[in-house]
Design a protein that fits this description.
It is a single chain. The chain is about 40% helix and about 20% strand. It is built from 14 helices and twelve strands. Strands 3, 4, 5, 6, 7, 8, 9, 10, 11 and 12 form a ten-stranded mixed beta sheet that branches. Strands 1-2 form a two-stranded antiparallel sheet.
């Protein structure tokens, strides 16, 4: 069984296709060779039709015979060249494929053209963002696209997002924290070595509400983590490395609880949506997540705190056209209105450059004494 691989080409709209306007959207060089030989009955005529040398066409046909393990052309002295039975079957498969897939191929081609049009648009910008799972970011992507800014968003844990930024895999990272977390907090332990004043710049984005996602009507009457521990409610956690997992550790410490005090479900979940699905399905009773996801799934929600969702970039990228375009979008009144429509979300100095030291006050700087 031979495998199928697809590829595409890019060309200027004014470029003329040597095969004409009726050339198939999905093409293979072997099929073009076989078609030309079948139509003209000779290698030399096929070569002239394709604008190739006789030696090249002959060599390619022999090479493809080796690849396929079958003869493709009947070579009889004094007669026109013709396709073997195997060659005819290949051409039949080609015609069937083109006939069946023509609508899908046309739709795919149009989609590719629209996507690559961004690369050729001098007024468009593309910005790669790795971020902790968040319900506002997909809406931001849709809103920003209207002004020519295309956000390539990839969701991962907050810790992994900042690592991706530091390793040059993205331009922006999204992570979330409590307001001015203590230097002894799990938040500080997770982010202190990843974020550096002078190297990173924080853009304001939003605040959102985190709390307990529970079944509709909150049948266990859970009000806090103490209730979750006392009732032995099946607690579903987020994955290690996510900002919500870090937040849970801090909330437990503030209530003088340990992770082992919870009736932890053995499987953790990579996103707020997956966590909500675990509760909606009845597999679990409660988990820590954001209000908007709970409301979108028709689940109950017990608010515990408001947190800040930050966007961070390297200082060197702050003045880039793409980052400047994002700041303009974030400061737009229409975006603030769209954000406010999400349950639990509020604008938080959106688009403004904020002090890393003020937001995350973990660093101390020793004054250097001047010598006389």
């Amino acid at each position: 069984m031979h495998s199928i691989k697809l590829h595409y080409t890019l060309s200027h709209r004014d470029d003329k296709d040597s095969l004409g306007a009726d050339a198939p959207l999905l093409r293979h060089p072997l099929m073009e060779l076989l078609q030309a030989v079948a139509q003209h009955g000779s290698i030399s005529a096929a070569a002239r039709e394709l604008g190739l040398s006789y030696r090249h066409v002959w060599g390619e046909l022999k090479r493809w015979e080796d690849v396929m393990g079958h003869e493709l052309i009947v070579w009889e002295k004094g007669q026109s060249a013709r396709l073997t039975e195997f060659g005819d079957k290949l051409m039949w498969a080609e015609r069937q494929t083109q006939a069946r897939l023509a609508p899908q191929l046309e739709a795919l081609r149009a989609d590719l053209e629209r996507t690559f049009a961004v690369a050729f648009d001098t007024h468009a910008h593309v910005l790669t963002l790795y971020a902790s799972h968040d319900d506002a970011l997909p809406r931001l992507r849709e809103h920003a696209a209207e002004s020519g800014l295309h956000l390539d968003i990839r969701f991962c844990g907050s810790v992994d997002a900042i690592r991706a930024l530091n390793e040059g895999r993205c331009t922006l990272a999204g992570f979330h924290t409590q307001t001015r977390p203590l230097a002894t907090s799990h938040t500080a332990l997770a982010y202190r070595d990843l974020l550096k004043p002078g190297l990173h710049k924080v853009l304001g984005f939003a605040t959102r509400t985190q709390g307990l996602i529970v079944a509709p009507g909150n049948p266990l009457q859970l009000r806090n983590l103490h209730d979750a521990a006392r009732t032995r409610a099946r607690f579903v956690q987020r994955s290690l490395g996510t900002g919500t997992r870090v937040l849970l550790d801090d909330l437990l410490a503030q209530e003088k609880l340990a992770l082992a005090d919870l009736n932890n479900w053995p499987d953790d979940e990579p996103s707020h949506v997956a966590l909500a699905e675990a509760i909606a399905s009845g597999r679990c009773d409660v988990g820590l997540g954001i209000e908007s996801t709970a409301k979108s799934k028709g689940l109950g929600f017990v608010p515990l705190m408001h947190e800040h969702f930050h966007l961070v970039c390297l200082k060197s990228a702050l003045e880039s056209p793409a980052t400047q375009a994002l700041r303009q979008v974030l400061q737009d009144a229409a975006w603030a209105q769209a954000l406010q429509a999400l349950p639990g979300y509020h604008s938080d100095h959106s688009g403004e450059v904020q002090s890393l030291n003020a937001l995350l006050p973990w660093w101390t700087f020793k004054r250097v004494k001047k010598t006389a």
